[in-house]
From TrEMBL:
It holds the Pfam family YadA_head. It comes from Burkholderia cenocepacia. Residues 102-128, 132-153, 159-184, 186-212 form the Trimeric autotransporter adhesin YadA-like head domain. GO terms for cellular component: outer membrane. Coiled coil: none annotated. This is Adhesin. InterPro entries: Adhesin_Head_dom (IPR008640), ESPR (IPR024973), Serralysin-like_metalloprot_C (IPR011049). Residues 1-46 form the ESPR domain.
Amino acid sequence: MNKSFKSIWNEALGAWVAASELDRARGKRVASSRRAAEHVAQAGATVRPGAHAGLSPRRIVMTLAAAYLGLFQAGAHAQYSAGGGSATGGASSIAVGNGSVATQVNSTAFGNLSTAAGTSATALGPGAHAMGDGSTAIGINAQATGVNSASLGVQAIGSGNYSVAIGNLSSATQSGAVAMGSGAAATGVSAVGLGNNALASGQYAAALGLGASAA
């Protein structure tokens, strides 16, 4: 009986071989089955990583860190203290420096013996004190004790509410007073003293220039 032979690729041998039509057909089914199994395996390999993506090392570390910091607890606080500082003001209070103290919410004390005792107060520099809410004291021994007051300079004092003292030894002691210059002083309500050693002592008084005085 005559048989028809053709060359087909034998995957097991990795070569072309002669085979009958029946063998070729049977070989096709085997090869097709093998390819189908490979596709299923590949599909499974593709699905598995996605199915376990939630258990990746990165996610595990982030989840544990968040739980450790208490970020999932209502009313959680973030405080930071370093170098002998004490941050006791609850949320976002920061104290950096030996003897530094931040006692209110959002308060920041940076520098040895600095103190931020007002809400959202900022004290920067050794011995700086920001005691009023929203106050800012910057400089060695600068004092900002009034609400929303600002003192910038060595031993600058802003003791009036909304007062501003800029310059070494400057002082603004009344509400709305402004003193700018080394040794400048504004001791009257809304008084302005501009210039080194200028003095504005009267209510709404303005002293402009070196050593100027207005009562």
